[in-house]
TrEMBL record:
Pathway(s) where this gene product acts: Alkaloid degradation; nicotine degradation
GO molecular function, one term: metal ion binding
Protein's UniProt name: 2Fe-2S iron-sulfur cluster binding domain-containing protein
Signal peptide: none
Domain 2Fe-2S ferredoxin-type intervals: 7-83
PANTHER family for the chain: OXIDOREDUCTASE WITH IRON-SULFUR SUBUNIT, OXIDOREDUCTASE, IRON-SULPHUR BINDING SUBUNIT-RELATED-RELATED
InterPro entries: 2Fe-2S-bd, 2Fe-2S-bd_dom_sf, 2Fe-2S_ferredoxin-like_sf, 2Fe-2S_ferredoxin-type, 2Fe2S_fd_BS, Aldehyde_Oxdr_Iron-Sulfur, Beta-grasp_dom_sf
EC nos: 1.2.99.2
Gene assigned in the entry: cutS_1
Native source species: Mycolicibacterium chitae (Mycobacterium chitae)
UniProt keyword terms in alphabetical order: 2Fe-2S, Iron, Iron-sulfur, Metal-binding, Oxidoreductase
């Protein structure tokens, strides 16, 4: 039953329509993890600084710990678990595996979602802070990758392998 402090929300997570009645103050991360049992996005810092909660939200990467769930009713959400299919990994996830782009794995789902979103941004020509020539599509060199992925932290410092994995996935 909907009241002044609770709202029924519907989200489309990894191809499945899901509903929950939630307190209006519930973050998108808590909706996913606590109400819907979707555990790919992780709760790291809970302040939008580590990126472990990153998903693709309506096609763009977003930190779910900073988003209120009620603001995303009917949103399309893709987590790392929703990338790829039953028979093969998404190319970015495969590249992370091939290049040991993880250590403990806690940040990996957020890193992978962020990398997928970042590659889409590059493909669309969106510049970053370090993009040298704004009039053409960015060159995906190490500096460009590091800048674009700077919102995703890895406590284990697997950064060289993450950069190598993104280079491979971009090819």
């Amino acid at each position: 039953m909907e009241s002044a402090h609770f709202t029924q929300v519907t989200v489309h997570v990894d191809g499945e329509t899901r509903q929950a009645e939630i307190d209006n103050r519930t973050t998108l991360l808590d909706l996913l993890r606590e109400h819907l049992g979707v555990t790919a996005p992780k709760k790291g810092c809970d302040h939008g600084q580590c990126g472990s909660c990153t998903v693709l939200l309506d096609g763009r990467r977003a930190t779910t710990c900073l988003s209120l769930a009620v603001a995303h009713d009917q949103a399309e959400i893709v987590t790392a678990a929703g990338l790829g299919d039953q028979t093969s990994l998404h190319p970015v996830a495969q590249a992370f595996l091939d290049h040991d782009g993880f250590q403990c794995g806690y940040c990996t789902p957020g890193q992978i979602c962020s990398a997928v979103g970042m590659l889409d941004e590059v493909k669309s020509g969106a510049p970053s802070h370090v993009t040298e020539h704004l009039e053409r599509s960015p060159d995906l060199d190490d500096d460009e990758i590091r800048e674009r992925m700077s919102g995703n932290l890895c406590r284990c410092a697997a950064y060289p392998n993450i950069v190598a994995a993104i280079h491979e996935a971009a090819r």
